Every structure is written in C-alpha cells, then in structure tokens.
Amino acid sequence: MTGFFRALLCAPFIFLCAHAHAEGPARMVPNGDIQDAGWALGRLNDGGDLARTSYSYQETTNPVRLYLIDTGVKQTNGWATWFKRNPKLSIIANVRVGAGKAKAFTHGTKMLSVIAGPETGAAQGTPIQAVLYDVYEGTTEANSDTDPGNIASAVLNARSRHLSTTPRIPGVICIASGTQTPESSYTLKSSIDAAVAAGLTVVVSAGNLNKDVAEGYIPAVYGSSAGVICAGASSTTNTKYSTSNWGYPVDLYAPGENVRTIDYDTPLSGGYDTMSGTSPSAALTTAAAIIELSKNPALTPAEVESRIVGTSYPAAADFYPPPATGQAQFPSEIATLVQVEPSPEPDSDFDGSADILEVFFASNPADQNDRPASLSLAQSAGEIAVSFEVAQDQFNPADIYNLANGSKWKVQFSPDLNLWQDAAGTLSIGTAADGRIPLSFTAPLLNQKGFLRVQVIEPPPAAE
Q1: Distance separating alpha carbons of residues 312 and 47, to the nearest angstrom
Q2: How far apart are CA 308 and CA 68, in angstroms?
Q3: CA distance from start to end of the chain
Q4: pLDDT tens profile 364-383
Q5: Residue span of the signal peptide, if any (predicted)?
Q6: CA 404: distance to chain centroid?
Q7: Most CB atoms within 10 A, among 206, 277, 373, 391?
Q8: Of 131, 129, 118, 105, the residue nearest 41 (C-alpha)
Q9: DSSP 3-state assignment of 287?
C-alpha cells in the first residue's frame, strides 16, 4: 500500500496539491462502495474477475465538464428526483441542436445514468458539470435520428463553452452515435479535431454492426486520432459483444452486454433497466476518462487516452471474430478492457487523507479535524525546495528514508504522470518541536513541466 502527496511544477509558476493536480490545495474525500453494482461496474474494478458484482470508486474533488451529445435527457418528475440523488452531478445546460422539438429521451437518459447516475454511474463519486446536447430529430423515440452536421455543431458548441469557461475546467465529450453505412464527414472530423486541440478528450462508440470499423463508419473511425478514444463493447465473458464493431481504430473495449441503467419507465431506487451495445461501452469509458481528469486535471486529451489505454486489462486473445473464408486475418493483438482504479488507501476518519499519510505527517488518523498540513514549495537560484513536517516518533535521522513502523518514504519526479523516478536532491533536517520534525528536500529546478510527489510505502505483510 502506498500513499502520496503530489506537487505540480509549471515553471515559472509553482502549484501545490494533495492527491490531485490542480492549482491550489485539493483533497480527496471518502471513497464509495456498491456491494450489488452489477457485472459491468464490477468488471471495471477487476477485468479478470468474472464473478465480481461489487464496485469501489474514488470520490475525487476536482470538477470535470461532461458534454453529452445524444438524445435529450428526461429531467421531470421521477427522473429529476433520481438524478438529484447524486449530489455531485449538476446539469448546467440543455442545448437543442437541429430543427423541431425534442422527442427522444430514453437513450440519453440511460447514458447519463451509466456515467453519473446514483447506483448505476461509474463516475458518481466525481463532481460532474453536465452540458446535455439533444441532436436527434423525429416525432417519436423509434424514428428519431440525427446527422453528422448536428453532432459537429454540438462539438463546436462544447469547444466554445470549454474555451470560455473561467477558470478552465477539464472536459470530456461523449458521442455514442454512428452511421449504418460507410461514410465520411469533413465537418465532423474538423470539429472533433478542433475540440481535441482545445483540450477536450473525446469518446466515441465503435458502432453495432458487427463489422470492421476501418471501413469508414463515423465517428468511430476518428478513434485513430490522439485524444479520441473509440470504445467497443465486451460481453459478460470478456469476449467481443455480438453486435460490436471491432478492429482499427477501436482503442479498447468496455462492458456492453446488459449494462445496468436507470429504470426509464419507473426511476426509483433499487429498480434498474439494462442497455446493450457500444453506447454503454462509450459511457463507461467516458466515466473512466472523467475520473482520470478529476485526479489529474492537467492531462492533455492524448495523455488521458494513454492513461486509459495503458491501465486497461488484457482480455482473451480470441476477442476478435475469426475471418471469413478469403478474408484477411484480423489483428492478433489482445483486446483490452477499461479499468477504473478502486478505492485507494484506508482512511479511518474519512477526512480525505489516507491513514498511512496521517501517521507520516504527524496528524491523527482518527480525527477528521486533524489532517496533514499542505506541503510548501519555494524556488530560488535554480533550485526548488519541498518543505513539510513529519512525525518525530517515526523519523530516524540515522536512517532517514526508513520509518519506525517499517514504512519507507521518498520524493519522486515525473514528467508525464506515468513514469516516476526517485528525485535527485538533498534533504535538510530541522529542529524537532511538538512531536514534529521539519524537513526540506532541495532539488535542481528543471526547465520543463513536471510533477513531484512525496510517497509513503507500507512494508509488505509479514509471512504467516
């Protein structure tokens, strides 16, 4: 088990945060667990456990903007009451794109419930500001459809909102739509490219035709661009769901068979409906991206995609369907499943600071009002210093990086939040007072963006 505080360096300015990367102090709050969450959410925690139906999620603190481009979302009567049961979800705008009055609501309502709904949402522990776009036209739910122009307009509107938001809030665009025949759209591609360039991560669904999306189905084909994540659908047995498209440029897969959603007809606690196909897969992937951005708001869309793909779970090698006679062999690489990191270190007093950190930083893990003090950063003459206080009864000046309880600690540096290495520098030890020892770690100031963290690592359990 490890715990860590992180400091974000952006020369010539220096920002400090705890557990998340944002300007100013930020803290984690208690974690959430759902014992009966259904197979899809359970698979997000452990891609290899086919029996798991519990789901553990982190309650993060940095807000993320969700731009859901879909049908309308039902927000009257029971639906509004149901969504309000997640206090971290706020619907800040409803935008109608296209002609006519909104008629379709089922698909978008279920999508939002998979992303952030109480009981069914994968990102229900993250503060989400939802901008809901209704791009579908038609007089009934059954005959409602849309065109690439409507989606492109919604994407450009999301980009404009993102750029005009002060302070800038990280955002994810979710598009779970697709064509039934091969098609291209310069307008849609240009709008998606512009959104990514503006800092918005885009998630698209692979489509439900059981075909190779390299044939040109949109918007799935844009998954080949960095910062655009194309999600296929997996089954309960970690194989490709029967209707899901596959192949390049699908980046990964997420549960897409009978995924638990809000009960659209009767939106009450404990009552659920299901949804299948690549739409819920895109919603679950969107939730994973939202959680990642809440933990690390400084990530670019390409970095979000790299993190999501890089932490995914390898599924069965025969995930792709066999080729028909006379057709080329499908890719041999192993498909991967989206994962969401479960609750981190124990936090006995639910104050947002892990017990292992409270012991190290000399605060009381049983007292919500006693939390570790923030680290401080200062730079001068080509150097940067990280200063903090540690518990006197844990720190040994003769063996500075090994603690009395068997834990170890270190200062680490990363240029990209992925690769971490021990930071080179010198440690200065101050005079103990009130059970605390002040420490200052001084390192050369690098001419690049980077991240520092103070990491505390628990000893392995004793052998029985």
Answers
A1: 8
A2: 19
A3: 19
A4: 888 878 888 878 888 877 88
A5: 1-22
A6: 36
A7: 206
A8: 118
A9: helix
3-state secondary structure at position 133: strand
Q: Is 451 left (phi over 0), alpha (psi -120 to 50) or beta?
A: beta
CA-to-CA distance for 10 and 1, rounded, in angstroms? 29
Question: By percentage, how much of the chain surpasses pLDDT 90?
Answer: 57
Per-residue confidence (pLDDT) for residue 422, from 0 to 100: 86
DSSP structural state of residue 238: S
What pLDDT shows up at residue 464?
A: 41
Tens digit of pLDDT for each residue in 9-64? 433 223 333 332 222 233 333 356 787 899 999 999 999 999 999 898 888 889 99
Q: Which residues are catalytic?
A: 70, 107, 279
Residue 360 parent element (H or E): helix 355-360
Pairing of strands 64-70, 55-57: unpaired
26 burial level (CB within 10 Å; 0-12, 13-18, 19+): buried
- DSSP single-letter state for residue 373: P
In this model, does residue 362 exceed pLDDT 50? yes
| Matching residue, tokens 């050369």 | 444
Domains and CATH numbers, the chain: 1-28+347-464 (2.60.40.10), 31-337 (3.40.50.200)
